[in-house]
Specification:
Layout (H helix, E strand, L loop, with lengths): L1 H35 L2 H31 L4 H35 L8 H23 L2 H31 L4 H33 L5
Helix pairs in contact: 1-2, 1-3, 1-4, 2-3, 3-6, 4-5, 4-6, 5-6
Length: about 210
């Protein structure tokens, strides 16, 4: 019975890794669509996030089966309950990628006047945080989880810097206002993606210690 349960837990880990990879891929593709103006990349990002809906349902169903059909001990309960929380964060990351992609499609119709270098770097850091947070969960690595939480400060600093620059641009040149506002919204979505990665990292720590950070 325990062997079967452990096998199911391992499958849960694989599914979480797959969903995290899908989220990271969506972040990469949506970043490409922003920096290159590639309409197909933006549309692809939207489609990729749709597949995450089924992943979320599959993981939730597996978690419920484990809870109802097996007799998990306290450590197992922490693992399963954390997965149920984390899958929600991953799904929201997918939603935010889709939102960024939709704005990217709008930006494509405009003349690109702003450098997106900082936004690209911010996006890449958010993607790394998502990947490392799931690594921390799968490997029960609290140090890796804490490193993700520390990275959030860097993303927050990017958000504050980019926002301040774009607000100053709006003040100086009203003709740039629409594009600047769109870019501020994008950076806010990226900040939220990083926040969801922090949530995942905190649940990874909970799996090991039973401590809920907040």
């Amino acid at each position: 019975m325990r062997k079967t349960f452990d096998a199911e837990l391992q499958e849960l880990n694989y599914e979480m890794i797959d969903m995290a990879a899908a989220a990271e891929d969506a972040i990469d593709v949506v970043t490409e669509s922003l920096t290159t103006g590639d309409e197909e990349a933006a549309k692809s990002a939207v489609e990729m996030t749709k597949s995450m809906d089924q992943m979320e349902r599959d993981i939730e169903n597996r978690c419920l089966r484990l809870l109802l059909q097996q007799q998990p001990v306290a450590r197992d309960l922490r693992t399963i309950s954390a997965a149920l929380k984390m899958v929600t964060d991953l799904q929201r990351i997918g939603d935010q990628c889709a939102n960024i992609a939709e704005i990217a499609l709008l930006l494509k119709a405009q003349k690109q006047t702003q450098s997106l270098a900082d936004i690209r770097t911010m996006s890449q850091k958010a993607g790394v945080m998502v990947k490392r947070s799931i690594f921390a969960y799968v490997n029960r690595d609290t140090d890796a989880a804490k490193a993700v939480i520390d990275l959030d400060d860097e993303v927050d600093e990017f958000f504050r810097t980019i926002k301040a620059e774009l607000v100053e641009l709006i003040v100086q040149d009203r003709e740039e206002a629409d594009q600047a506002i769109d870019l501020i919204i994008i950076t806010k979505y990226l900040e939220r993606i990083a926040d969801h990665a922090v949530n995942i990292a905190q649940w990874a720590i909970f799996c090991v210690t039973g401590e809920i950070l907040g």
